[in-house]
Amino acid sequence: MARRTPQKRLPGRSSDTKNNGDQYRRRWKWDKVVWGSHVVDCYPTVGSCPYRVYVRDGAAVFEEQAGVFPVVEKGVPDFNPAGCQKGACWAQQLRADERVLYPLKRAGERGAGKWQRVSWDQALTEIADGIIDAVQEVGPEAVFSPGGANAMAWGMVAQRRFSSLTGFPLTDWDGDIGDCSPGMYLTWGKHVDASQDDFFHSELLLVWFCNPAYTRIPVYHYLSEARYNGTEVVIIAPDFSPSAPHADYHVPVKVGTDAALCLSMCKVVLDEGLVEDRFVREQTDLPLLVRLDNRKFLRASDLRDGGREDQFFFHDHRSQRVVEADRGTLDLGEVEPSLEGTYHVEMKDGASVEVTPVFQLLAQALQRYEPDEASRVCGVHADTIRMLARKVASKRTHAYEGLATGKYYHGDLMGRSMYLLLALTGNWGKKGTGPTFWNSGPSTGVHLLQARRTSGAQEAKDLLTALRQVLDALEAEDPTRTDEIALTELAHRMSALDGWHVPTAWWLYYHCGYRDVWNRRDWHDPSMRREFDEYFREALDKNWWAGVTAPPPDKPPRVMIEVGGNLLRRTRGGQNMFLRNLWPQLKTIVSVDVKMSSTGLWSDYVLPAAQQHERPHAHGYAGTMFYSLLEKAVEPAGEALPEWQIFRRLCSRLAERAKAREFTQYQDGRGRTFRLDNLDEAFTAGDTLVDEEQMVAEGVEASAIMRTVPEDTNIESLRETGVVHFTDWGLFPNAQSYATDVQTNESMAPFRNHLDKKVPYPTLTRRAQFYIDHDWFLEAGEELPCHKDPPRMGGDYPLVLTSGHNRWSVHSNNIVNRLLLQTHRGHPHVVIGQADAEARAIENDEEVLVHNDMGSCMVRAKVTPLAQPGQVIIYNGWEPYQFRDWQAPSNIEAGMVKWLHFAGGYGHLRYWPFMWQPIHVERATRVEVSKIS
Ligand code: SF4
């Protein structure tokens, strides 16, 4: 028998049971308890799960889910106790090894890991001088700021106000991280989701492009609860994902072939007469007439001089006449639009042209997707396709879509196909139906902060009055505009006019080396008929992106200020692209963060930001429809500061240095003048926006003025309850996108106003639009949803790499938390199927090389039967420094963009923040996995 080595007693530990009991009791003592949460880009509460944070001796010792959500709808489970394991660890992160406590300045080569602690004074003076140098040398476009998922509380607000006052470009956060859904935008002119308790009303949940067991932890219980309510849950994913064991069906579609599966289901719906005719006629563009001579919609401008380009037509079955489709309402009145047939219409020049409804073209296009044919493409048995189609057609169906469609090259086609299936079966605008993607939820007082000229309730009222007047003017310009359409129009115009909030793609193309990658024809779809650059130039020549193509090619970047992001981890192409192409051009790189990220390690300065429990906030989201309070629990650690204070000090230092250097104003490329000498006053609105506690209280007050929370809500009432249910959406374009009235006693399903009140959609045709007659879409054969195989991005390799958010972090937040590392293997891994591993003689947990023409990374193999043959998965969130030589999977991602997403000059295909824009993608990148010799 082996002898046991006597255990040395640990300091502070005692074998005395009484003392142990005391210690245990002391563990659960505290001086005060405050409200908290973690305002990061987590889902689906987006940083608003209500928590109680326990403070002892000035330190946050632990936190727990508050469980204070009231019941919203009788008979529907409540949200309690919303939270996840990352949330439960934030108090630990206050004292984590990776926490940045003091301003740091690089003391060696970039990335050498050598730092010196400097004062705020020194850091901000040097950064301010770097900014002024850049403006003098190049112009304000040389100073830019990428968005960051960690910056959602104060960072984003401060960053935006700073950018709008200086003209320094701020790249679109969703463009940066790829959380756009081009398919959803093409279809409805917006992004939406539902409150997650609405799933309880679904009869069928299609969990598609989503792995909620990993990514929707706070609301995952609704999947189980819905099943007890009779809901069938179907997981559609190539791998037997961690969510699959909890579903009724797992449908193992081949990677990137979801559109084929979905369109085949659409064909079954048509063939078996399961189409919801009335819904299709009223809500969609499928009855609109298309000219057969040029495949364009029939427009009023075809029929008469001065006719509108955006006036479309039905063929009325009752009167047998071609009639205008009302742009101001979806109400069909006495009209019964035909879905089939061909008709002759006389053009303004006297010519007769044959026209047909989109529906008829769709029926023809779907001939390619006979289930037996589609099965060969998507790998799903034809009987399963038929069974699913019948279920969707007969049940209240919700497409529980994650954020992954936009991460596929042809994700737009997958999304459009999925929404087409919902359309044909009448599955949106009713409880338990519709899509779930994301949008930014109801507007709150924080949305006004960027525009405030002073503090106080009157300023909030004045800003709202001014906004209302602008909307009234836009609605007078075109009386068919609803508030939603007018707000969207305003967002388009403001984006083009302001030009400081810009899509990411131009910056990547002009300054980060992506031009070469995007011009690799062999990595694009073969239906791209011309060179990529030809499309790019055409988009520019036609002014489709006027005002937002910054920073332009003649304005090389010199200063980068990243706030709560991690470019080198998250950007497809990662270090491969940035360190090689962008970094040499940058003279000053600043990382504002709570932690030392991989990007921070390659920066010149790292400025310590205050963490979740170190500053107050009030925040809510549509996923729950609740607004939550976060109180400041403890003082910021070390010399950390809330982001608002960091920018405030930077503005102040810029003003001082500008005066000292006698460089007090400058112009941007459009001739607009910006002043530096009063930047501190402008940023703080004459010293009125200084204190976070006051700004949060005013934000709550402004939310009540906006009526997005009850009128009697204030900071004190929120301190009592912690949360309050939203009561309205507010006048904000992204908020109005939900197009449904807020009910405080019901779950929220989007689009009810489109169905119940016949409110038109913000698309070119004012209907859910499945036919895109833009020249480029016609050229590509993508005027209707179709399936195309993923292109061979990354090179000619046998495996396809997919990804997804992992279970153990929110982006890279918490990924090195010691407690969380102990809940899994504790290091990055690549999931590989048994057959693929055996074919390469790879053993479980063996370190392997994942590589392609872009680059490589070394990672341990997780050999499992759960991955589909030919598929490998590396979940995202790992810090590059967790890999050997800091070489992360982003290095092997090609970051291709689909050329069609540069299309514009067409109805709703115009930029506004977080919406229509080209997204660099990574899913289905081609790779090989090899043993390391
Ligand atoms: Fe909720 Fe987790 Fe996000 Fe915290 S980190 S708000 S607990 S989902």
Question: How would the blueprint of this fold be written?
Answer:
Blueprint: H1 17-27, E1 32-36, E2 51-56, E3 59-65, H2 90-93, E4 104-106, E5 115-117, H3 120-137, E6 143-144, H4 155-166, E7 170-171, H5 173-177, H6 182-188, E8 204-208, H7 212-215, H8 221-228, E9 232-236, E10 249-251, H9 258-271, H10 277-283, E11 289-291, H11 300-303, E12 313-316, E13 321-324, E14 343-346, E15 352-357, H12 358-365, H13 371-378, H14 382-394, E16 397-401, H15 411-424, E17 434-436, H16 446-449, H17 457-477, H18 483-498, E18 501-502, H19 504-511, H20 514-518, H21 532-541, E19 559-563, H22 567-570, H23 574-582, E20 588-593, H24 598-601, E21 605-608, E22 617-621, E23 626-630, H25 643-660, E24 665-667, E25 673-675, H26 679-683, H27 692-705, H28 715-721, E26 723-725, H29 733-736, H30 752-756, H31 775-780, E27 799-802, H32 818-821, E28 829-833, H33 834-839, E29 847-851, E30 856-864, E31 871-873, E32 925-931
Parallel strand pairs: 6-19, 7-18, 8-9, 8-16, 9-10, 16-17, 19-20, 20-21, 27-31, 28-30
Antiparallel strand pairs: 1-2, 2-3, 4-5, 4-21, 11-15, 12-13, 14-15, 22-23, 23-26, 24-25, 27-32, 28-31, 29-30, 29-32
Helix pairs in contact: 3-25, 4-25, 6-15, 9-13, 9-14, 9-15, 13-14, 17-18
The chain binds iron/sulfur cluster.
Explain what this protein looks like in three dimensions:
The protein is an alpha/beta fold and about 950 residues long. It has 33 helices and 32 strands. The strands form nine sheets. It has a six-stranded mixed beta sheet with strand order 5-4-21-20-19-6. The longest helix has 21 residues, at about 455-475. The radius of gyration is 28 Å and the shape is globular. The two termini are about 40 Å apart. Iron/sulfur cluster (SF4) binds near residues 37, 38, 82 and 83.
